[in-house]
Please model this.
Amino acid sequence: MIRIHNRFLQNLVGSVFNLLPILTVILVFQVLVIHQPLENTVNLLGGTFLIIIGLTFFIQGLEIGLFPVGETMATAFAKKGSLTWLMAFSFALGFATTIAEPALIAVADEAARVAGNGGLIDNNKGARIDYALGLRLSVALSVGLALVVGVLRIIRGWPLQHLIMGGYASILLMTAFTPREMIGIAYDSGGVTTSTITVPLVTALGIGLASSIKSRNPLIDGFGLIAFASLTPIIFVMAYGLIV
Amino acid sequence: MTAIFDFASIIVETVADVIPIAATIIGFQVLVIGKPLPNPKQTAVGFIYVILGIAFFLKGLEMTLFPVGELMARQLTSPEFIESQATSEPLTWQSYGWIYLFGACIGFSTTLAEPSLIAVALKAEEISGGAIQAFGLRIAVAVGVAIGLSLGIFRIVTGSPLYLYIVAGYCILMVQTAFAPKLIIGLAYDSGGVTTSTVTVPLITALGLGLASTVPGRDPLIDGFGLIAFASLFPIITVLGYAQLAELLARMRKRSL
Model:
């Protein structure tokens, strides 16, 4: 029990340090550049306290919850030796976490508005809702597929750099053909797919898999799942912009 | 009262995020693996900690960083402020000095506090046996986000097309990937993907849209986007660069011995 408390304290101190740069930036800009006193000191202090507590709980939860779950599942699938089920699990995890992602919903709605104004689709509410939903589905599909390919790569030991360079090459090629309005949205969509809860789980899954296969190095082979999950949405959104 | 209601709605949203994940895990655990999780109680506590942690964190951000950051983004991009700082007429890209600095600072500091990056960095330190320092990795990523955001702001100010920068960035990246130490590649690309989530996205969206609506001749719909792309591309370049530099230094040290 004492050890847990120490760990908690350690995390707490770490969180304070993590927050210092943000506070410094706010204070310096507020005082030196904008020359305005801080509006609400109570809110600022209370909010800072909440952020520190939040980060501490989050890291604690990672260590006792998300990381172990990702790793035990990876080991269990590796022991079971069924590639099909592992791939089904990876796809389900990628699809399920992405389809409900609030940041993605926001980007998809924005994209529908741009497409409506740009004349790519009919500019009415129904067409925009269909467009946004289709976009979300294709991004979720792409993240599911990304995890399947990423897991296959870890198992087969394919070199990551070849796959990634292939992916970027196809993005470059597709950029040339995509309508100009869609390019920014497509690139941005790659950044919004991986949520705070998915990242630790997926990282632990990859590292757990790479550690349970003898000839794989967790550092070389374990990372890279998130890289795929941020790459494929760009391709799929561009393809969606081209097809629809 | 509204604060409590706000907080409850954040918790509901976070729980809604977790439900599909938990359903997938439990479904596969029960139906396919056929065994319960080894430590169900501890795991449940861990998930609750994570949900609470994210909720507290977001609520805290809503009370501090988001309003101040958005206010500052608005004020720094307001025509009056820019004209008061400008030394030359008409406005050139140099007139926006404070905004580049603000973008870099906000990118750097929010990235250091980004929960998903903390998760990846902790894992990297653990499995590399401490050879990769979590804090060093996070600094390298934060520097990348800072550079990316300033460059992205420069692009909005000058109105040059996004694809030029992205294509150039990808070309640099592909060359780096071909020569970088194999150990770091996966980690570098993963840390690029996690830089932009809870903390950074709302702020840089406000900054991008604010700038695009202030700078004459910019269309918010076309020029307001793309900052996220800059913020996920440049950290990969800096992390790979950092690893390449470390390798180069180690090689030079070996040679001089």
